[in-house]
Write a structure and sequence with these properties.
With 30 residues, the protein is mostly helical. The protein has one domain. The protein is built from 2 helices and no strands. The mean pLDDT is 73.
Length: 30
């Protein structure tokens, strides 16, 4: 019934891309 929610979930597979990017940046900085 909530088709909009399903579309949003498919459009955003990663809940926190910013946090993941921050972790990658910290790992690169060492």
């Amino acid at each position: 019934m909530n088709r909009k929610n399903l579309v949003r979930a498919e459009a955003e597979p990663q809940p926190a891309p910013d946090e993941r990017r921050l972790i990658l940046t910290l790992d690169w900085l060492g």
